[in-house]
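Continuing from the previous page of notes. For each protein in this section, the sequence appears first, followed by its structure tokens. Read the first protein now.
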Amino acid sequence: MISVVIPLYNKAATIRRALASVLSQTIIPDELIIIDDGSTDDSLKVAKTTLEISSGISVKLIEQENSGVSFTRNRGVLSARNDFVAFLDADDEWHTTFIEHAMHEISAHNDISLYTCKHQVYDEAIGCFTPYQNFGNSKSGLIDNYLQRVKNCPLVNSSKVVVNKHFFVKLGGFPEQAKVSEDLFLWIKMAECAPIAYRDELLVTIHQSPDNSRSSRVGEVPYPIIYYAQKQLKQDQNKDLYLYLWVIHLNHVLGSCASNKREALKRIAYGMKVFKLKGLFLFLLLFIPKRVFSILRFSRRLKMVKASV
């Protein structure tokens, strides 16, 4: 069976929806772990009220002082009794057959590091769209080259992943000192441990809305860049990894250019430790007005919405 871990921090408005999606699964998971990370709203109260209608599922409610989402997820996995653990963010939701398909793929493939599937995004500003996702040539199976495929599309995120607890614990889980892209780093390391199984079917909805979560990450460099800079990774050592790191770096630099040029400068400068002269050209982006990047980003997401209709 699969345990479910939901980190909860000030999500009183959405936790009911997330829990309803767990309780409406065609195969109900036998363990649900909710960890309230020091919420200051009614998140925990709403969760308890919602769970009063649950049946056939073991529920653990854990309260702690605010410690961050990585610490919270790691604690959830260590508290889980099953060999596989699914994460669900408190503002997202699963479609009814998410657990059913996950269990099928886990049973079909031995010693996988994790399972993933297709997701759609609901953005409050522009609507719903399905990002391009290419797992492989079959409806389900094993991803043949994770690093090569993930350069072009998002294949794993924290609301559509089921991790193998053995490999997760072996790697130490999410790096708790990291502030940005700690999840992308863990997926890279998990892919190195064992194959990734997938189901090429839309089974998760990610909800995006404005919040203040970014305020604690302003000026931070993506953790994969920090880690591999320390390892002094070179392109000829692992071409696919190097190119994927470049994608992570470029995306975060472009995001910073749209909102915080000082942050962009810091990220570009740090990226020079990995990308050398290639990264030097990114300094030119600092001379382009922020509104240009904002318009381009909005236009790109709007095109994805229209393409999904």
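Done with the first. The second protein uses the same format. Note its length before scrolling.
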Amino acid sequence: MPKGAAPPLIEIRRLNLYWHPAIPFIQDLSLRIMEGEKIALVGPSGAGKSSLAGVLAGLTPLHSSELSLSARKRHIEKKGRIATGQALPPLIHHHSYSALARALIFQDARATLNPLMKVAQQLRRSIMRQSLPRAELERRFAVLWQEVDLRAPLADRLYPHQFSGGMCQRAVIAMALASHAALIIADEPTKALDGGAEQRIVDLLLQVLLHRGSTLLLITHDIVLAHTLCERILVMEGGAIVERYRVADRRRQRASPTRKALWHAAEQLLTQPPTPPALSRVERRTLPLIEVSHLSYRYHNRWQPNRAVHPPLLRDINLTIAPQECVGLQGLSGSGKSTLLELMAQLKTPDGGEILFQGKRIATMSLQERRALRHSIQIIFQDPSSSLNPRQRVIEIIAEPLRIRKRGESHAPTMPYRAAQQRAYLAMQQVGLAEDYAGRYPHQLSGGEQQRVLIARAIMLEPRLILADEPLSTLDTIHQHKIVTLFQKLQQELHIAFFIVSHHIERLQSLCTRSYLLENGKIRELHFKEMVALSPPVLVTHGALNSAEQ
């Protein structure tokens, strides 16, 4: 460092992080972040971005047998202080790494929140760490609550499980901003948000960085968002930084293959004209696979079930899905999309209306018919990490539906364990997971890899209908196209129908024959032209895409 120059806020030299004693998944990584900088760390799913965020935040379990740091090759410096050894300084006992000095916006927002505490109370606790008077605390709470657009009726009385994925994400962002941290580490902060909410959060982050002078490390697979928010870009692939450049100088530097692939995928996503898939006459004439009629639902008070403390979330919902049809569902965060999928999967009981599967009311089905229905309808949840057993390996998670089915059907022969594993390996191959992932646990996977495990598990029983709740939100643009292609292949080869909730309206336009819009508790069917008109605003213009170094 030149004499008289300001020291870096954080500096990492030759970081090596291991899952296996002989195989590092972060290799010889060096990183310097100056005070007030806005840096983006971009790369495909599984590149090691979130693992690096855990190291910077001091949350990586470095003393576990499966995860360790090379002590001789790691030095972290913060404003002149150097910390060495096998663990970062604890959050509380070292002021240079105190909770007030850094804030991490986690990728999995729902798992970050305490399920036993109201979300508003958790935000107040984050503000209380600064020892403010009660009047100032309430004022800051109201400002943050409004800044992240959590102004839904009774939202300050709800628990995390009553929040949508996007609302949980906004709450976690508010908690991070409450600390007035010098360094904000944002790990996929907009992945669970719709287009309008994404734009508001981007504007909020820019405003906070401008007024507070905070430093931002944005971790994302969205290279368009990275170029919008940040000045310097670090491209990560295979646990190493393969390219570093400034946004203003991107044309002068030869682009790495990873950057080219990310830009190409983003260009396809944003500029490719959508074409609606054709629905055959046979599919139009057949009996609906599933039909929802006059469905209604509201959250109830657990201790007073008959007391209507919450307004209806869903009112008079009507929709149909034909066999082998792909239907989309759009709507703002918190509009009830995930709740509707849980009602269709029989995970919640509606307050009114009925659901028919192949013309038969589910409420009147026998126990044996309901068991068969569980095989025919599979759901892919929005939050991958909370949907996976942390004590099971990937191969066991994917093969589990086969073991459960054979256990519940006395007339069916038991499938040998090896045969179930072979089926699981085939499913992994279909969703783009290499065989060496089979022995990993969920915490050893990136968010995109966890999502692909959920998709592989869902197709194991060859269902008639898959309810997919934001199946693309945790995937980079490269793998989004692969998953969409996979859905189209499964739709044709296995005759599977899809009901897909997605904020990526462009993908719905090219994948779905029809789409529904859910707003204010009611649903209506959209024509293709209306879907195009409702596409979210692009954060950068197509000209910026075309001018990028390809």
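What the second structure shows: The two ends are 33 Å apart (CA to CA). Residues 326 and 512 are 5 Å apart (CA to CA). We return to this in next week's lecture.
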